[in-house]
Design brief:
single chain, Arc Repressor Mutant, subunit A, about 10% strand
């Protein structure tokens, strides 16, 4: 919601609350002046906690609608690729697109040698960009969880 609409909504809710409290106060005042202090629809000992509860509810509503929403912003994949050049960029792009791949797939898609891919992956692992899981003879490469949150 736009900021101007939020402000208008907050003022509207607050105005309605003040109007309701004023009407109820006027009602209670007229009942007391006629001598019907206990004849109100809402007894006076319950009136104050009731108004306080309504005020708390209205305040919570205003806070909910006017407070900024925190969203994790997604970062374009191309942003991450700007940190790499050449062969490293090619390998990281494959991992970034798949989020999880085995090392053989990366070798096949990148058209690089097994040794070259292995060395690049070792660099990435040392930098904390990827996690390498060895399952038998297969190495599964996963993006770091923190990077996955932004992609």
């Amino acid at each position: 919601m736009e900021d101007s609409k939020k402000v208008i909504l907050g003022i509207l809710i607050l105005s309605v609350f003040v109007f309701i409290v004023s009407i109820i106060s006027l009602y209670v005042q007229t009942e007391i002046s006629y001598g019907n202090a206990c004849g109100c629809a809402i007894p006076i000992p319950l009136f104050i906690p009731f108004i306080a509860s309504v005020g708390l509810f209205i305040g919570t509503m205003i806070y909910y609608f006017l407070s900024p929403k925190f969203e994790k912003k997604k970062i374009d994949k191309k942003f991450f690729l700007n940190f790499f050049e050449g062969e490293e960029r090619k390998v990281f792009e494959i991992i970034l697109n798949k989020k999880e791949a085995n090392q053989a797939e990366i070798v096949k898609e990148s058209n690089l040698s097994k040794v070259k891919v292995s060395r690049i992956l070792k660099k990435f692992e040392n930098r904390g960009l990827i996690e390498k899981l060895s399952i038998g003879k297969i190495n599964i490469i996963k993006l770091n969880k923190k990077i996955l949150e932004f992609v």
